[in-house]
Design goal:
This protein is α/β, with parallel strands linked by helices. It has 11 helices and 6 strands. 43% of the residues lie in helices and 12% in strands.
């Protein structure tokens, strides 16, 4: 495993990091967050990297992330992520906006013959010949100080995203396929994708199709109430009412 980079915990450090990233056309971006016991994801770490710069930013130590959020809105700088959906949701919750433009390596890889929905570690091994360390998937990212091994593990997610992006981008450009991703990336950065409508919460439930008409009307009302209550209390939906219990009630 590579060494852990310093953890950015001051406003000055954040501004210096953002200034370095802004001088580039693109940078790699990843997050670590916790949401097992909350409705909204709690951002615990932001990792960024370029060919020359690598940093981990500590949102728990900073009063705000405004310089970074402004950079995420900068149309002149591409944000490179892998399986970007959950990371983009985190930033949408923070600012009400979705970072743009983006390049998602998981979406790009199949255009060069790699498997659909391939995990980051698998692609890094296939394209770069590097086997990433495992064992920190269950890390409590709210822990401070973070263990150096956990910080190094998190940093590797952007350290190797840089050459991964370069390889995929070059391969797509050589084949004239870069434009093939435009529509998918546009859908990925559509803010409505991350705006959860309580009136549509029932659509995620299994078993609705087995309910009579009156039961379907009830399940919609129950799901809307549960969604609103979970948001207000910032707890998982299941802490208010489990899916199976909701269907049984309906």
């Amino acid at each position: 495993m590579n060494e852990a980079p310093p953890l950015i915990t001051t406003a000055t450090g954040l501004e210096q990091t953002v200034d370095a990233l802004r001088r580039c056309d693109w940078f790699a971006l990843d997050t670590e967050f916790i949401r097992e016991d909350t409705y909204w994801p709690e951002l615990c770490l932001v990792q960024v990297a370029t060919d020359e710069h690598l940093a981990c930013i500590d949102p728990l130590a900073l009063d705000h992330l405004d310089p970074l959020l402004e950079l995420l809105d900068d149309q002149a700088v591409t944000k490179v992520l892998h399986a970007a959906g959950q990371d983009l949701e985190v930033f949408h919750h923070l600012s009400g906006r979705v970072p743009t433009p983006v390049f998602d390596t998981q979406l790009a890889a199949p255009l060069l013959g790699y498997p659909e929905q391939a995990g980051f570690g698998r692609l890094v091994e296939q394209l770069l010949g590097v086997r990433l360390a495992k064992g920190h998937a269950r890390t409590d990212w709210r822990e401070r100080p973070l263990p150096p091994a956990a910080l190094a593990y998190a940093a590797d997610d952007v350290r190797y995203l840089v050459p991964l992006y370069e390889a995929l981008h070059a391969g797509l450009a050589e084949r004239g396929r870069l434009g093939w991703l435009d529509e998918e990336f546009a859908r990925l950065t559509d803010a409505t994708r991350y705006e959860r409508d309580p009136d549509a919460a029932w659509r995620r439930l299994k078993g609705v199709d087995r309910l009579p008409d009156a039961g379907r009307a009830t399940v919609r009302a129950l799901a809307r109430w549960r969604e609103q209550q979970a948001r207000a209390d910032n707890v998982p939906r299941g802490h208010i009412l489990r899916d199976d219990a909701l269907i049984d009630l309906a």
